[in-house]
Design a protein that fits this description.
heterodimer, A: alpha+beta, STM4215-like, 5-stranded mixed beta sheet, 21% helix, B: 9-stranded mixed beta sheet
């Protein structure tokens, strides 16, 4: 995500990690446009961000950093951001993951 | 591409803001008569049509531009009385055909939910008895 790159969170990737080591985060986004007769009036993106690490605190810290950038980056018009779920933890084969899910709406200006 | 996105209603020569759907219903006005030559059979003649437009749209706080009626304009028209309540309407088909006439706003509703995920919407109904295709 451009916002996260700007904020120098470099270890965030779309769908698949492009690094071998931990920590890293991946995101998936689904965009749905909504139409009025005079064009698209809003686009809703459902975005899932998942941070991974061997240490829980590291995964949580990375997820929180990304969350901070998303919340501040989409807090003003024409965007609204709503956190659907936050801090969903999981541990699989000694790798922790923390998942945040957002619904980001961009309105026509 | 499906037809319909470019079928538009104009009120007072302006498009309505944020329209998501237009519906049109045409009903004939008939007059029943019986005269002695009809030998007891009633005759029905179409004397005109009532055309009802139902428009659904979004409450748009951008206000659109000068070619559009925004939600404040629409509600202001909806509460007019007497001769002022008669509005000019144009119904433009996708092939460019245009039906024009006058009408009266017979209903206006707004729905403004609290949830940021839901849209604030309006609906408007206009009834016309004199719509004609423009040459």
């Amino acid at each position: 995500m451009t916002l996260c790159a700007t904020a120098q969170i470099a270890n965030l990737f779309s769908s698949e990690a492009e690094v071998k080591g931990y920590p890293y985060a991946v995101y998936d986004a689904e965009f749905t446009p909504y139409y009025a007769k005079d064009g698209v009036y809003k686009i809703v993106a459902v975005v899932t961000v998942k941070a991974y690490s061997k240490l829980y605190t590291e995964a949580e810290s990375l997820a929180e950093s990304i969350d901070g950038v998303i919340q501040s980056g989409f807090s003003a018009s024409p965007y609204t951001v709503r956190t659907v779920s936050q801090d969903r933890k999981d541990c699989l084969q000694e790798t922790w993951s923390v998942t945040y899910e957002y619904r980001i709406t961009q309105f026509r200006t | 591409m499906t037809a319909g996105y470019n079928i538009r209603l104009k009120v007072e020569d302006k498009y309505l803001i944020g329209v998501t759907s237009d519906e049109v219903s045409v009903s004939p006005n008939t007059k029943t008569s019986i005269v002695k030559e009809n030998q007891g059979t009633k005759q029905e003649a179409i004397t005109g049509h009532t055309v009802t437009f139902s428009v659904s749209g979004l409450i748009d706080n951008t206000g659109g531009d000068s070619t559009m009626l925004d939600n404040d304009d629409i509600i202001a028209l909806a509460v007019l009385t007497g001769d002022s309540a008669v509005v000019d309407i144009d119904y433009i088909r996708s092939n460019g055909d245009e039906y024009t006439g006058t009408g009266v706003i017979t209903g206006y509703t707004e729905s403004t939910p609290a949830s940021p995920d839901e849209d604030s919407t309006y609906s408007l109904t206009i009834e016309s008895n004199d719509l004609e295709i423009e040459d």
